[in-house]
Fold these 4 entries.
Entry 1:
Amino acid sequence: MEKSKFLKNLLQALLFSSPHPLTVEEIAQIVDAKPEGILEELQELQKEYQKRNGGVIIRFLKNRWQMVAKPEYGAVIKEKSKHVSPKTISRAALETLAIVSLYQPVTRTDVDLRRGVDSSQAIKTLLESGLITICGKSEAPGRPFLYRVTEKFFEVFGIEGEEELQRMLQILKENGETQ
């Protein structure tokens, strides 16, 4: 692929994946290129998107570049997404999820001991979101539920599967970051 085409594709991917608008200087630093060349490619990319007349545009506003939905589609998306808005995950739920993923299968009591606080609400949230599931009962007194991560967990966090998760745990153990 020619250098110019590669840079344009890289800029497009960067604008698409960036959670916030970027200055030319920020983009140049990220892609390791000269700001002048970046500006030229961004302007060309902006024209291509205008000509394409699709649902997405490249916008320059307040010295920053951004890929956004066209206003007429953005309003519809905003309205429709109110009904399916995903919950953000709390710090407590994220800590709980990390413990479940590293020590699964694990009971709520095991999670509580590792976190040092009650994890009931975090576990409930994770169960509702489909990131963890009940996978059985412990032999401990009271036969508490055992929890483990789900396929959705692997999809959301970009982990290929159980083997990769085990490799990550091994690296953490070797670096003394888990007990």
Entry 2:
Amino acid sequence: MRIKDLMKHPVHIVKPRDSIAHAREILEQHRINQLPVVVNGAVVGIVTDRDLRDAFPSVFDSPGFTGPSHKPAREPEKILVEEVMSAKAFTVGPDEPLAEAARLMRQERIGALPIVERDKLVGIITRADILDAFVVLEQAGGGTPGAGPATPSKAGKSSKVP
């Protein structure tokens, strides 16, 4: 099974100069955890729900809090994605084996990989996509990713790739 058989596209993205409030809206609206940061189609970084959680002001930073460590917080609308993103985004190509994506995610302890072809973002694959592939393969009679043509459908059942 190849990465292109499971990658999601089109991909929800943000730009470096977008606010973290905008990025958080996209994550919440689409119920996703990672957003590639893109300029002219090229991946320049990735921002995760954790990056945004860490950047958002704490309740202890709010204007009404008067505790000993109170400091005024910056508004999320004024913090840019480029300030909190990971500039080192690991990527893979669509024709690589699914096992390569799984190996890289495990090695780097990341939850998603942007898929890049000719230096342009063409998709994304997540840890959940890889787990779905293992479930489908198990239901289809075993095997390992890359060994057969089964791929998950939206209903979670296997279907054959032409």
Entry 3:
Amino acid sequence: MAKAPRQSRHQQDSVDRHVARWTGLLDGMDPEVEGAVTRMQAITKRIKAGDHAAYADSDDTIEDYWTLHALLIQPYPEEATPAQLADACGVTRAAMTSRIDRLVQRGHVTREVDPVDRRRILVRPTASGRTLWERGIEAGLAREKAAFSALDAAELRALNALLRKVVLHLEEG
């Protein structure tokens, strides 16, 4: 494997310094693989931190947004059961009950007994819930676009092509 050209200190990112610390200390560590994985994790971490920060000065929370997002992208986006929402959000049913209680209290969703099957509870978005979700989507898209603004259109396409290749490989495996 060819070595990457040496970079000056001001051209290095935190991942270059991380990889340099570990190179040679761990058998089998490929610095290029470590660099790629750590950079993807760093990008995701910063985007998620921005998502959380967006709700810091609000009565609503990122969990409210995630729950509304799960509700509004369901196969039947006008309603879902608490169990469906818990599964979609990757939380326990007890945690989802707390989230739904909060969203009902804030007026973002309704919780009703299913008129067809009275054993089921249906959660539906309200106009304010839909508005909160739409604002969250718009702001999130803007943060994601800003995160990748260092790349021009051709670079972004090239990055997507490379990442797609990795995802396809993992999905096949």
Entry 4:
Amino acid sequence: MHAKMILTLSFRIVAMNSLGSRVAGTVMICAFWLAFIILYLAFFAGNFDFWQRLAIFVASGAIVCGITLAMWMKWMLK
């Protein structure tokens, strides 16, 4: 890799250091998850029963929680 590319990649990794960017990221993740659930239930879950819909809801919620936790982990360890 070139030095410029390494510096660019390292800058993108460090860009999530401020508290405001973490809060904004959390709000965006929650908004996208809510939009996913609404669109999923409205258009794609027609043939599924209640338990299958619940499984998708729980699995997607676990994924969102994992992403959010990974984003906040560095701040929590300070």
